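Worked example 4.2. Below are the chains of a multi-component assembly; read each line carefully before continuing.
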Amino acid sequence: MQPDSLTFIFLNAFLINNFVLAMFLGICPFLGVSGKIKTAWNMGLAVIFVMLVSSMCAYGINAILVKYDLEFLRLISYIAVIASAVQLVEMTIKKFSPALFRTLGIFLPLITTNCAILGLALFQTNRSYDFLQCLAFSVGAGAGFTLALVLMAGLREKLELADVPDVSMGAALSLMLGGMLSLAFMGFAGLGG
Amino acid sequence: MVKDPRLPDPLSWQTFTTGLWKENPVFVMLLGLCPTLAVTNSAINALSMGLATTFVLVCSGVLVSLLRKVIPKQVRIASYIIIIATFVTMADYAIQAISLDIYKALGAFIQLIVVNCIILGRAEAYASKNPVSNAFINALGMGVGFTFALLCLGMVREVLGMGSLFGVHLFGPAFQPWAVFVLPPGGFFVLAFWLWLFAVARKRTARAQPATKEVADAA
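Applying the procedure described above to all two chains together yields the following structure tokens:
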């Protein structure tokens, strides 16, 4: 497979270099919203959408900034774009699915400070992807985020029933699980290479 | 402890030490975990990331505190983000100028300091309500606490994963590096280990001296 083909970019972001488990982007929602499979799935969908929108906007903005030699404004404008995209998603979800809006609650506006989204915009700029590659990259990254979140939620739902020593409850246990998931995902290294 | 929320905290040694220990951003508040896990595969990376974050934390804390009466309440988060992004851009260019190796090792994570929740959290919860001197000391404490946490992880991971510390080899050539610790899963495991250690320590102190603690709380 060509390293710059769309399939490879998608697979790379989805499995091989999974945003959460291999690149440590978006750890906060990974630990915070992974209590229930249903919430995790909805959160994942919202993140995929925000990623798509902000990736497209970031592509356009980067082209303008490069043209006028204003690269030092990149970070500030990306953040502004992401904040507006999140606002857009919030309004859309509120209009079309008030139930989902209530389920996601505070985590919806917090997508703004999800480093997976800014990371996506920065990586696509660093690797100078063209427009289609950006789309494949953002869908792959979003799907990878959702996959990691749903897997983690599944593990944690089972773990509710397990008998765990109380000093290792909470964050330490979640991180241990994350480490094992990450170990499992290392098996994808070399896929498509 | 109940106090009038309108009054600023008095400036004391504690303003500095809360960030270091009692409210350590990583080990106690679990904030800013992405850079904590991602760049701590060696001690030197951990140290530079900690210093860069401290710089942004202190500068944005001071500026937010200076402007706390100027910024309207409705647009405060957006203003804070812009302030933080400005300092991050400065730190980004500065690191690139000082050491290209470190810049390449840290990669996009320098720019991702913008979305580090510690910084926005400090700006919103402390700097926007307190005078400049307090904000400065508090941000410095938080920054040192964050750097300390990063070093805790980075040193363990580098020693186990590469058999060296700050690039100096500690063991003879017979040492077999435990490579998983410099790879992503190692980050999760080492942080889980530290959190577990702190939980055990806290439990032990709580059990050993309940009387002392009550006296300290009352004082």
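Take a moment to check your reading of the output against the notes. Chain A has eight helices and no strands. Helices of chain A lie at 6-16, 27-32, 37-67, 74-96, 98-104, 115-126, 131-159, 171-185.
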